[in-house]
Design brief:
By secondary structure, this protein is mainly alpha-helical. 75% of the residues lie in helices and 0% in strands. The chain folds into 2 domains: 38 residues; 51 residues, no CATH class.
Length: 106
């Protein structure tokens, strides 16, 4: 069916909408790539900070992270900490000077 003179405006509007939608998707993709490109920066900062921490601090943090992995690996929807696990985490957290920072980043 041939297009009439009044239909060109509709085609133009539809085409403009498609182009705008494609441009938005492209910008989102670029933003994601840029965001992911700068993601390793916090890892490098953490590595440098860890170089100046004591061995006891690193061992305590490692113990806390291992216990979190053990609790998370349980095959239930929301794993509950057992009493002794909670006590262990509280004890280890008391050894970590900046345990709130580690808690909020997970």
């Amino acid at each position: 069916m041939p297009l009439g003179p009044g239909d060109m405006g509709t085609v133009r509007t539809t085409l403009a909408g498609c182009v705008a939608s494609a441009a938005r998707r492209a910008l989102r993709s670029v933003a994601t790539v840029v965001r992911e490109a700068f993601r390793p920066a916090p890892l490098a900062v953490g590595l440098v900070r860890d170089l100046f921490r004591t061995r006891d601090d690193l061992v305590a943090e490692n113990a806390a992270l291992c216990q979190q992995l053990i609790a998370a690996s349980r095959h239930v929807k929301r794993p509950a900490l057992r009493s002794w696990e909670r006590a262990l985490l509280v004890g280890v957290a008391s050894r970590l000077r900046n345990w709130q920072e580690h808690q909020s980043s997970s």
